Amino acid sequence: MNPILEQCELRKTEITYHQAMNSKHDEDEQQRRQWGTRAWATLSAVRTRSPLIQCITNFVSMDLMANTLLSAGASPAMLHSVEELPDFTPNADALCINVGTLSPAWLPAMKFASELAVKAGKPWVLDPVAAGASKFRMMACLELMNLKPTVVRGNGSEIIALSKASLDSSMGVDSGHESVDAVEAAKSLAHSSGAIVAVSGAVDIVTDGKRVIGARNGVAMMQKITATGCSVTALIAAFLAVDQLHALEATASALSIFGIAGEMGMDVAKGPASLRTHLIDSLYGLDEAAIISRIRISSL
Ligand SMILES: Nc1ncnc2c1ncn2[C@@H]1O[C@H](COP(=O)(O)OP(=O)(O)OP(=O)(O)O)[C@@H](O)[C@H]1O
Ligand SMILES: Cc1ncsc1CCO
Ligand SMILES: [Mg+2]
């Protein structure tokens, strides 16, 4: 080819490439803004409607979980006695069950409450804390999975253990896996259970077994505050309470919002103890502009 023509062809290819890259960037940016608008709308609905969230949760998490729900605008209630459930659970807007400090005495209440929630058409969320730590805990988690949770949210190790129903008794409540290493396990668990599965970590993963969404908000220091995972599970319940028909989107939005509150809290925190306080303050004060500018959700 004539060298001048060749140069022209090369230049044309270059321009087409840059145009494609720019339009991909515009598309990504548009998708990101759409997620921001959705997350803000759902948080606003929680603030306006103040859904009642019943939590049957571990002793460690009760305080942070209740304060997370309050600062997001929801109304937490930590009720777990079997005697109260028939009156209370059907009237709650969503239920959060967390097996962190599981004992035989509490398991019947967890199962009964989830059955009542399903019967009343209310969403419920399972947090399978340390699912692989013991046979008793794994059996309990598997039984609860059979009671049709709307969403299950765990860390990488918990979701991997649960999806294979295999024990790893060297693991406690902290994850030994990156969330991205649990994508296949999460998809398989979503397939077998029909639940939306969320895996927290540097990237929060959310899947219905087909679509996989990644939410990249948050700071690593959040792992150094006990029960941040438990608390974001309860926040997912609050988001489901106001947007039950879009469980995947509500879950991704709750994870991002909590992550954004962590990022903003980290701007002023000095360590885990002050981050705990500033995260709650930031969640309480979050506005639309901060969400739109900071949200980082995309398809994986
Ligand atoms: N490396 C990281 N970078 C950013 N955010 C993170 C990181 N690791 C965890 N997070 C965030 O911290 C929160 C807690 O997630 P984590 O995976 O630690 O839950 P967990 O192990 O169940 O915690 P816990 O059992 O103490 O409640 C989530 O909001 C998650 O997005
Ligand atoms: C530390 C701990 N132990 C059981 S539950 C819990 C809270 C974090 O999952
Ligand atoms: Mg946990």
TrEMBL record:
Gene3D superfamilies: 3.40.1190.20. Its EC number is 2.7.1.50. This is Hydroxyethylthiazole kinase. The keyword Magnesium applies. Keywords: ATP-binding, Kinase, Magnesium, Metal-binding, Nucleotide-binding, Thiamine biosynthesis, Transferase. Its cofactor is Mg(2+). It holds the Pfam family HK. Thiazole kinase involved in thiamine salvage pathway. It comes from the Eukaryota. Belongs to the Thz kinase family. One of its GO terms (biological process) is thiamine diphosphate biosynthetic process. InterPro entries: Hyethyz_kinase, Ribokinase-like. Pathway: Cofactor biosynthesis; thiamine diphosphate biosynthesis; 4-methyl-5-(2-phosphoethyl)-thiazole from 5-(2-hydroxyethyl)-4-methylthiazole: step 1/1. It catalyses: 5-(2-hydroxyethyl)-4-methylthiazole + ATP = 4-methyl-5-(2-phosphooxyethyl)-thiazole + ADP + H(+). GO terms for molecular function: ATP binding; hydroxyethylthiazole kinase activity; magnesium ion binding.
